[in-house]
Prior knowledge:
Elements: H1 2-16, H2 18-56, E1 60-65, H3 67-70, H4 79-88, E2 92-107, E3 110-119, H5 121-126, E4 131-134, E5 146-149, H6 151-159, E6 169-172, E7 175-183, E8 200-204, H7 205-211, E9 219-224, H8 229-243, E10 249-253, H9 254-297, H10 299-307, H11 312-349, H12 357-383, H13 387-392
Parallel strand pairs: 3-8, 5-7
Antiparallel strand pairs: 1-9, 1-10, 2-3, 2-9, 4-7, 5-8, 6-7
Amino acid sequence: MIIKANIKEALKSLITAKQRTILALIGIVIGIGSVIGMVSIGTIVQNEALKQFRDMGIDIVSVTKDYEEQGSSDKGFNIDDIYNLPHYSPSIKKVAPYIMSSAQYSYAGQDMYLELMGVDESFFDLNKLYIREGRPLSDLDRNRFFCVIGSETADMLRKAGIKKLIGGQFLFGERIYTVVGILKNLPEGGGMRPSGINRSAITHISTAMRVFTTNDITTFMARVSTEDSKTVKAVIENYFNKKARGLRVRVRTAEELITQMQKQMQLFTLLLGAIGSIALIVGGIGVMNVMLISVTERRKEIGIRRALGAQRNDIETQFIIESVTLCFVGGIIGIIIGIIISYVFAHFSKWEFLISQSAIVLGFCVATAVGVFFGYYPARSAAHLDPAAALRE
Length: 393
C-alpha cells in the first residue's frame, strides 16, 4: 500500500512539473529507443542472412583461388578441372563455375549499370534461382547471346519505357543479347549467393568467356554430399594440388560462413548496444539533475513530512520511486519508438519484421536500473535534510 501511495504521489509530482519531466524523459527515451531499435535491426539482418542459408541448404561450398598464396598475376581455374571434380570424388555432387563483369546500358538518355554474369545450368539449381517470366538458361544455350535478367534489371528497363522484355534485344556492354527470361526477386545480404543477381544480366559461361573483358574463373560453387566440412575441404584442396603443384584454394562452407556471420552480428549488436548505453548514461544524468532540482524545490514538503513522523527511509523511498517511475515511463515510450524504428527499417528493406524480446526485457530492466542508480543520490540528499531548517525556509 505504501509503495502504491508513493507511485501515485510520484506520478502526481511528475505531472505537476510537466516541462521538467519531459526534459528528463528525452534522454531516457533516446537511450532505450536506440538500444531496442538497434538490437532489433541487428536481429532482422541476422534473420535475413540465415534465411538465405536455409533456402539454399548448408550443403553448398564456395571455392576460390587463393591469390594471397600465389600472387595476383596467376590466372583462374581451368574450367575442365572444375567440371571433372565430381568424377574425382563422390562427395562432390555438382559444380557451378561463374564469372562476373559489369556493363552500362543506355536508353533514351538514361544510363544504368548492370552486373554481367556468366554461368551454366547448374548455377540456377545451386542458387535456387526461380524464373518469373520466360525460361532459364540451359547448357543448350552454349556460345549463344541469350541472357536472363534479374528482377531489378527488368523493373529498371520497364521504368525506362521498354514494354517488351522477353525476346527483346539489348546492348549490354559491347554485345547485343536476347532476353529469354526474368528472375524472381532474391533476398540480398549475405549467404553463399554472389551479390548483385537482382541487378544483373546472366548469360551462358561459354559466351561470357569469349566476350567478357575479364574471363578468368576465380570462384565456383559446389554441392557436396557429406556433412563433414573438413573432409570436403581436404578433398577439394588435394584435387587442385594434384592438378597444379602448389595451387592453393580457399574453401568456404556454409557452416563456416554462418559461424563467422553470427560472430560479426554479436559484435555489431554489442557495438550498437554500447552506443545506446552512452545515450542512457546521458539520460540518467539528466534524471539525476531533475531530481536534485525537485528536492531543492520541495524542501518545505520534506520538512513537513519529517515533522509529521516520516522516517528517512520513507523520504528516500519516495524519491527513488519517483525516479524509477520517471525512467520506467521513458522506457515504455523508448521501447515503442524502438519498435517503430525497426518496423520502418524492415518495411523499406522488404525484410521480415522481427522484435528481439530479450531486448525489450533488457530495456525495462535498464530503465529501472537507471532510475535506481541515478535517483539514489537525490533521494539520499532529501532523506538527510534537517526538518527544522527545511521548515524555516
